[in-house]
Amino acid sequence: MRAISVSTLPALSPLSIGNVNIGFPIVQAALSGYSDLPMRVIARQHGASYAICEVMLDQFLLALSKRQKTKHFLDIHATEHPVGGQLMGAEPEQFSLGALKLVEAGFDIIDVNFGCPVKKVLGRCRGGFHLSQPEVAIDILRRTRDIVPPEIPVTVKMRRGIDDSVESRDKFFQILDGAIDAGLAAATVHGRTVQQRYVGPSRWSFLSEVKQHAGTRLRILGSGDLFTAEDCLRMIHETGIDGVTVARGAIGNPWIFQQAKALAEGLPKPLPPDLHEQAAVMRAHFQLCMQTYNEQRAPLLMRKFCIKYSQSHPQHEEVRLDMTRIRTAEEFEQMLNKHYSTNSSGRYIPREAHGSQEEC
To answer: What is the CATH superfamily name and number for domain 13-264?
Structure first.
């Protein structure tokens, strides 16, 4: 990766999606199993101007009631507006009804998922599968735009195609044009194909083509291989897109947003958070988990985040091992007291530490 000279970068333009003002154009992506209310709130507190919830199935949404233990999927914190709700499904009519459920829950933007590359999702004709059937995909977009109130923007998440064939490319742009004609406000494009999943580099040059094709008719956000603040700025400046959505690079690393904001303002990149700051953020994250779920579930759900937070610790391998054993709130505090009570410098998380969590 080339180093960025912040002194030579032009200022970033603020992002708006439809009539929703986002502001700083580096935002938190939807991440299956991760971008719940606690993660979104922590990201917002650290400079993300917008965040999207983890993807939900239309069938799941239509069956959901406030009495169920799964109602937290529709919970929105008072401080996190604007917030996006992301939806995935197979049938156009059911899809649009699921979108209405997200509107009723209070989400400010409705995002349609045509990008998920997970095999079980593709096998059920959802997510990235729709990139193979433009007519159905466009029907979903039209029905969703029609049923969602006009003041609420509708957006779409896509990959650059099912594969690298000419046919897949043509279908991608057919769907993109359909999104524009249907009145969508933005498209987020991941630079890999569905077939690639997370293998090989994300093709950022494709994002340039997409933005040139869409022009001012559609906001284009980019996704893929955004693991550092420098990556985020580089993607915007190299491709000309309107913004980026940070996925895997933000798990256990909410500081990426404030680091990117500093660089964008021509300031030095902030130092990695020290151990006391890391512990304070983990405690805040854990408290949000306790409020969102319950005392029994929160420690187990927090464990996967703690494993990611551990990558900022200089003794990350030892810390990570202890974090995998957390079962209770008491064990969570014991872990923090053991590894974070004495303050010292943290570290920037290396690119290879971000793993392959599913970004749907």
So the answer is: Aldolase class I (3.20.20.70)
